[in-house]
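Input.
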Amino acid sequence: MRRVWLLPAVVVAAAAVVGPSADARPAGQWATVKGQVVFPAGKPVPQPAKLEVTQDKNHCLAKGAILDETVQVNPKNRGLKNVVVWLRPANTDPKKSALDKTQIHPDDANRKVGTVEIDQPQCMFVPRVTVARAGDTLVAKNTAPVAHNFFWTSGNNGEFNPTIPAGQSFKMPQPLKPEATPIQYKCSIHPWMTGYVRIFDHPYFAVTDENGNWEIKNAPVGKFHVVYWHETGFKDGVKGRFGEPVTIEAAGTTVKPVEFEPKK
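Output.
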């Protein structure tokens, strides 16, 4: 059992004078928050349509028809895949969306930047929905035997449209920068191929798995909003960009399953 030592009142008062820091947040003030996103009960689970393949058919269709992955629902538990979930301050002010430095886990200051990989093995992007942290490097791979390209345009992270020969890859020349909006990536050689990346300036984000489950570790204890975004838009439309209230407890918090019906 983890012991939590209480500081004398005099020490606490002194800390308040100089201002809090992430390291001043006592042990037990960081916890895991998790939940599940599900397709609404009572509504028929959408069936993915076959995509029209017009290029490199021998390779693209070698394992069967390619299905639309826009809305992916698990028929067994109605879990909705590829919903991006993140924390934001408990307000509805678009100018106050950044988390305070004291709300970022101290280990994060020493984190090693990562490499985010997006592959194109069978004429679809894998993963379709990607999340990254500012400072990470993005690599677009092509493990297929045919050429692909990787097209994207963004506000903070430039424009790219390289052709990637079979078995090769393209590495972004600069580390990723935070982006307030999602960036769509495409392959113009195979026009049905698309995907999305969201780039955050904090570590509190996740993507739902095939069961609709998500988990965020080392989150700060307290009151926040949790935001749900699908490539078709926010849960509850425009107002959903501010998220829904959540109280993260020291013992950990499991959010009740959230129903989300993506736009058609």
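Residues 1-25 have pLDDT under 50 and may be disordered.
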